[in-house]
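re: ur question from yesterday

yeah so i grabbed the chain u mentioned. its 402 aa long if i counted rite. heres the sequnce exactly as i have it in my notes:
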Amino acid sequence: MQPFAPRSGRHRYQTPVTRSRTHTSPTMSPSAVEGNGVADVKTTLKPNIGVYTNPNHDLWVTAAEPSAEAVKSGSDLKHGEVSVAIRSTGICGSDVHFWHAGCIGPMIVEGDHILGHESAGEVIAVHPSVSHLKVGDRVAVEPNIPCGTCEPCLTGRYNGCESVLFLSTPPVPGMLRRYINHPAVWCHKIGNMSFENGALLEPLSVALAGMQRAQVALGDPVLICGAGPIGLITLQCCAAAGASPIVITDISESRLAFAKELCPRVITHKVERQSAEDSAKAIVKSFGGIEPSVALECTGVESSIAAAVWSVKFGGKVFIIGVGKNEINLPFMRASVREVDIQLQYRYCNTWPRAIRLVENNVVDLSKLVTHKFKLEDAIKAFETSADAKSGAIKVMIQSLD
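ran it thru and got these structure tokens back, copy pasting raw so excuse formatting
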């Protein structure tokens, strides 16, 4: 999911609730529906558990659906679905925000809600109607489930589907579980790619969608605002596309240092407390006096968006990837007299095959972004680490590999 602007509301953590039933179900030998018959899986199924939050900002791990018994029998699988054992899930800033703030714009946590939408895993059961996947396939799970019949879906822009079910966006449960059932068409084969890289195809898709629509080209001077996971992946993509020079901004010196290590030719710029106009002057100075053609804004922070508008050249483009407040103020006259194109993004569409090729062919290296790893049972600690600005975390990965 896209990055979002930090919110100044309460951020409260409560002791996680653990329910004993998650530990009492017996370990069992599963079966999986494959073709028109049943195939044994040479692993064991542990009880399904998930990571939940609620409107009270609690965070806990407890039993989740589908149950291990249902996965074993295949009884819950619908036409076109597969069961996936989730092996790796990245914590997105939106996951932390749903926990801390209880909402992102109109998307509100109203009950017990499972988080997580950056996931990859292994197919362990297949409905007889599915022919292109089999038990044992490694897949990245695209969290969209669009309707397929509305105008955006029929014109190939399924991210605009008003009936879409997006895993982890309330009230649709997310993928921080051991097992999920998901439409096979949205499970992308990843071959021998690591599960971690498979999980990171989701934020890579966010970056790719922005780059494609912003039309970043060879030799374009590009400004990237924000050195969080999306900004850093966008940096790798822009460098691979031949953008030059590239300047990345952030308020964190440690994140800028990480960006420099990730892409040595990037120019880093620490954002100071000053007006958007003065900030833009400092940014242009970092470019050596060149005004960027494109600004890819990855924070959603009002002041950062305004600085981007002030920074770009006449006829330049500010492409806003980050998610911010419901309403923000922008320097309208600056954008008007400079003919600045301002575009925004909502998730992604048709990006996953391209993203897979980029990782398979080592065009981008997503593995460097993973700074912390935790077991699913230790998800509370994982979220605390991800939410702690002092932890040095870039991407925290939750794993269920056994």
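noticed a couple things. The first helix runs from residue 68 to 73. also The radius of gyration is 22 Å.
anyway ttyl
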